[in-house]
Known about the structure:
The complex is a heterodimer of chains A (652) and B (186).
Chain A (H helix, E strand, L loop, with lengths): L2 H10 L10 H21 L2 H6 L12 E4 L4 E4 L1 H5 L7 H11 L20 E7 L3 E2 L4 E10 L3 E14 L2 E7 L4 E3 L5 E3 L5 E5 L4 E9 L12 E14 L15 H7 L20 E2 L1 E2 L17 E15 L9 H4 L23 H10 L13 E8 L32 E6 L3 E5 L2 E3 L4 E8 L15 E6 L2 E6 L2 E2 L6 E4 L11 E2 L13 E7 L4 E2 L12 E14 L7 H24 L10 E3 L8 E2 L7 E2 L21 E15 L1
Parallel strand pairs in A: 4-15, 18-32
Antiparallel strand pairs in A: 1-11, 2-10, 3-5, 3-13, 5-11, 6-7, 6-10, 6-12, 8-9, 12-15, 14-15, 16-32, 17-20, 18-19, 20-26, 21-22, 21-28, 22-27, 23-26, 24-25, 24-29, 26-30, 28-32, 29-31
Chain B lengths: L2 H25 L2 H16 L8 H21 L1 H7 L21 H7 L3 H11 L5 H8 L3 H19 L18 H8 L1
Amino acid sequence: MKLSDALRGAADRAPVDDATVAVGAVAGRVKRQRAVRAGSTGLVGAGAVAVLAFGAVGLPMAGSDESDDSVSMEAGADAAMDDGEIATEESLEGATADSRLAFALCGGTVDSQEFGEPSIALATRIGSDEVEPGSSVEVSFDATALADVDLLTAGPDYVVTWDGIVVGAIHESPLFAYGPADEMVEHPDGLQDVVLAEGETSTATYEVDLVNCWDGTPLPSGKYEIHAWQSFASTADSTGDGEMTPEPSASEEVVESMPDDGSDDAGDASGGGEGDGMADSTVSSGEPGPVSPDASALVLEQFRVAAQPVALVIGGEPVDDPFADYLTPLEPEPAPEPVEPEPLPDGYLTPEAARELFDQTRAGSTWSMAAGTQRWVVSYDARRMDEEQQWYGCVWGDGQDARFPSESAEMGLLDVSVDLPTSISVSYGFVVDGNPVVSSEVRNVSDYTIPNFWDSAQPALYLVQDGRVVAEGYPESLDRGGYGIERAMDGAAVDELSVLPWPGGDGLLEPGESTAGDFLWRDVNGCASEDGSWQVGPGTYTVLTMQSLSLSNDAWIAYGDVAYNDVAEDIEAEQQAVLLDRAGDGDDAVDLPTIESPGIGGAATSGSSGSSGLADVGEEPDTDVAIAPAPDGEYDWIDLQVWTSLGTVTVR
Amino acid sequence: MSQWQDTMEALVRDRERALLSYAYLVCGDPVQAQDLVQDALVRTFARERKGLTAVKAEGYVRRAITTTFVDQYRRSQRWQRVQHLFRPDAYAPDRMGQVEAGSEVADALATLPPRVRACVVLRYFDDLTVPQVARTLGIAEGTVKRYLSDGLGQLELALGPLEDANTADAARAPVASRRSQEGNER
């Protein structure tokens, strides 16, 4: 049997006679996605604030849609099923996290969020004007067509306010949000079609829990308001003829068409809705929503309409200033008094010494990037702030030179070695077929003590082709950020791997000292290419690693011993809390384990005078190493980068 | 009606059965095949592609069917909800009620994991080379070879020796031409 023939026979016999492709539904989804793509272009700028900033948080808490017979309000299940390029679950998680801050925040005020030219009027009704504390209330949102409409919506947004301040029930239903790659995605539940003839009404009803939005406790007795909005969108085909609607194409008009956010404060409309529990809609007089600058694309028109807020009373004895605990700003902690500056210890690498060394070892030619060679670059210099910064890496915009900086030096301060695989397989930016372990070591080969050297065993990898960086990769530390790993002491068993707070360290790399670590190479992020691709194609690339060095005449803790001791106490207290929590108390207490420090850069440190890498819990960090500002009080600093060529790697 | 819509409708009108059959081969379920084709059509036509004819579009759609299927596998959250459909011991009853008794190959394919199945279909149905399969699915060539080896081994257990099994890791496509393949589909 030949498999290829058998497969074709199987395809011929495939039981798909009853399966059909719903061309109409597919066409609708295509139009919607094209509209989203087109709309996303137009939304960049002011529109992004007005539309997307309304957030992507919150699946419907509870609710049921009530529609009269003439109303078609069908859930857009097909959109939710479109798993290919839109509305993936993980992407929406990202969108949710990304936009939550943009919508009404707990403790914030409610601004007018209308824009566009509404063809829908929105009204809010509540089941009861007065309810008991701890209960919920049924809230209905009536969307009444001002003309014949065929629109998309994700449902109403609403909040509960007290004295104009958002205190509860933040519910959001954005039309679109950003996915993990900043692409536009639909609402998690998909969009609903709203097809109404003029004068017809569609109603959505929600059971709103009357709890505060800080910690979920019941809202106290008092007078509240429910504010509601709803966003709608239409595409050209939804006008009925399936043809594109001519629209202005200049992007400037797009920006100008967006409303001025935050103009009206809907919170003062307390009169509406009392008595009959019904509030008429507010109709915005805004300009049309964003349109695509691409005349060939379908047009996405959006508007957002607000309902008059309705009053709601939670019965019982009113409480004075019921949200004082949540709304009172915290008193800022007084800043510690700075101590008198002391000169840096002898032998430390200062910004001035680094400048001199850079000048003495300045390279006279362009870097060849031959394997094993190294160049130092000054990325920032307090003395040269008026000059253009030296930059090398992915270039994200115009006007930056993608070539290695012409001004570099061979300072010879650090010996950097990174053990890379000769080839990797990359798919969608991820290193597949196992994440290679990358061993990195940085050794101080100078006579200087290098301060502020905290994470520099961490390699930052750059793939270079034709002298330009085409991709970046940041291997992941096995120590997950340099935290200590709990280790049993005196034979006491530790039943599971425990990660404990960083026990401190001096951040110094003494002459001859090295820091090393193992890292997982998990991703390769391609720079944006001219054709918009972000993928790294197969080929052989020169690999550079970069460590940065930040030098200043200031200390890493600027206030010297006093503040340093405070930090040490905090670290100790945190460690003790963790350990006591694990160990229990009284007779059940076990010996406290030691904390194994992975050393500088999340890895072991070794060398003639380096730290031991082990610190017992409760041991006072060595405070002698605190570096104070220079005696003259002048703050000086310089940032250096050391680039080391590691040879080549083949991307498959 | 816009041009892309004309193209899509022509494609569906002329090649609906072929696309559904292909999707069925990829996923092993007629209902999901329907969804796959529709999702692939959306993927293909959601962005502007100048000069897209129905013939070219079919190629796009077929690639989109496999990548959508594998993407669904990658996105385990969604996959978790439907994976029982692809396990041989919990194979879902055919809601279309049209499974033929002789579809041994389809049954054997159903025993393969999704990525392996996609590799087998692309290699032996689409006549893609190993590098082409790797690029289509975004995985390494070595991985494709491993999947093909594993997949063919499992298929041979069910179907007996396969004459073209030794071409699994060939860089060139099997002798069978695409033209004959399309002739079979039509």
